[in-house]
Design brief:
With 370 residues, this protein is α/β, with parallel strands linked by helices. The chain has three domains: 88 residues, no CATH class; 163 residues, Vaccinia Virus protein VP39 (Rossmann fold); 64 residues, no CATH class. The protein is built from twelve helices and eleven strands. The protein has an eleven-stranded mixed sheet, with helices on both faces. Strand 8, helix 7 and strand 9 form a beta-alpha-beta unit. Helix 3 runs parallel beside helix 6. The two termini are 24 Å apart.
Length: 370
């Protein structure tokens, strides 16, 4: 964790400034970084820094994540942490489990990710718009989008609830201006200073999607912009996937990994491989162009496996109409809204906050924006 991050974050419980009490420091590329320590506020709330990543989670979630994924640290802090009441946060816990496993297992950085990054944002956002901006990546996963936002010149706070932050921290380490934090999208430990906030492929997995969207809008600076990509309403084979999920979300992670490996091989043999063969046959171009489900044909085979795992492991998935997405932007007080379809399976949308907007009066739990 770089000390610069303290200018951008605050206590997620009370909104107070955080002070750093380091126990281990390292010089990395000429910059002093906190590897281990604590962030504390004047009210006594504390947040450990573990492996260079500040764990800026509300106390109940912090207790849950440490107990599940960092038992040694949980033993260290257990007397200062609350117990998680039985039955609470069940969807959140299962989502945490799924994404923590997924993005630490499927963590490879491929050269194709740059084109993938651009395909989400264009034509609504030009990559040049990232340059010299303060950007929030809300739900960063293993850091592939944060990496390219940093490459295009942004200072990035990459935030995720899951243990994917471990991989995101590793994958973005070459960019000094990328900060990785573990945090809850409903209670972001942030100050309202961001030029651009984006949330790609996350909101559809939240138990309260609109609330998640609105919670982010509060951290835009005047004139800033917010971008989302979410699932659109789907039919046909996608509905079959939803039926499969009623069973697969109950399967342990390792067996599900094996099952989705087999599904990916079947998909490759049925769709990607014939498409690639047809492209090589004289006169086969027209049939190749009409062949269904070919979006993975030119991607590494593991990408398809990761997406199969994503489809079948996450406990909550919601699909949205264009009107629903428009409604979020209206509720957040964002204007100049642009919405377009991406590959006919999702909506990309962008809205801007007019100067002197009153969007910070939005009632989304406690208001910690100052």
């Amino acid at each position: 964790m770089k000390y610069r991050l303290l200018d951008l974050v605050c206590c997620p419980e009370c909104g107070a400034e955080l002070q750093c009490e380091p126990t281990e420091l390292q010089m990395l590329d000429g910059v002093e970084e906190v590897i281990e320590g604590e962030l504390v506020c004047e009210s006594g709330h504390f947040y450990p820094v573990i492996g260079g990543i500040p764990r800026l989670l509300p106390a109940t979630l912090l207790s849950e994540t440490l107990q599940r994924f960092k038992p040694d640290y949980y033993q260290r802090y257990r007397d200062r942490l609350p117990a998680t009441p039985e039955g609470e946060l069940e969807v959140v816990k299962e989502t945490l489990r799924s994404f923590s496993y997924q993005w630490n297992r499927f963590s490879e950085m491929y050269e194709q990710w740059e084109e993938n990054f651009l395909s989400y944002f264009q034509p609504l956002v030009d990559p040049a718009e990232f340059d010299d901006k303060l950007v929030l990546d809300a739900g960063c996963g293993f850091g592939r989008h944060a990496y390219y936002a940093g490459k295009y010149g942004a200072e990035v706070v990459a935030m995720d609830l899951s243990e994917a932050v471990e991989t995101a921290h590793h994958n973005t380490r070459e960019h000094q201006a990328v900060h990785v934090v573990q945090a809850d999208i409903y209670r972001p430990p942030l100050r309202a200073r961001f030029d651009f906030i984006y949330c790609v492929g996350v909101i559809q997995h939240l138990p309260a999607p609109k609330e998640g969207f609105l919670s982010l809008a509060r951290y835009l600076k005047d004139g800033g912009a917010q971008f989302v990509w979410v699932y659109g309403k789907r039919t046909g084979i996608y509905r079959l996937v939803d039926l499969m999920r009623t069973v697969t979300t109950r399967i342990p992670m390792r067996p599900l990994y094996g099952l989705t490996f087999l599904l990916n091989i079947a998909s490759y043999l049925a769709f990607s491989l014939p498409h690639k063969v047809l492209r090589c046959i004289p006169g086969g171009g027209r049939l190749a162009a009409a062949w269904p489900f070919t979006r993975y044909a030119d991607l590494p085979l593991r990408v398809g496996h990761a997406d199969w795992f994503d489809r079948l492991s996450v406990p909550s998935t919601v699909y949205f109409t264009r009107a629903e997405v428009e409604g979020w932007f209206a509720s957040a007080g964002l204007a100049d809204v642009e919405i377009s379809s991406r590959d006919a399976i999702g909506w990309r949308a962008l809205g801007r906050l007019a100067p002197s907007s009153n969007h910070r009066s939005i009632d989304v739990s406690e208001d910690r924006v100052r």
